[in-house]
Amino acid sequence: LDRTTNWAVVVMATILTWAFSSAGNPHYVLLVGAAATSLFLVIEARRYRAYDVWRSRVRTLQENVWAYGLDPSKGLVDDDWRTRLADDYRTPTVKITAEEALSHRLRRVYLPLFTVLLGAWVIRVGAFDPRPWPASAAVGQISGLAVTAVVFVAYTAAVGVALRPRTWHARDELRTERLRRERK
Question: SS3 of 90, please?
Answer without folding.
Answer: helix
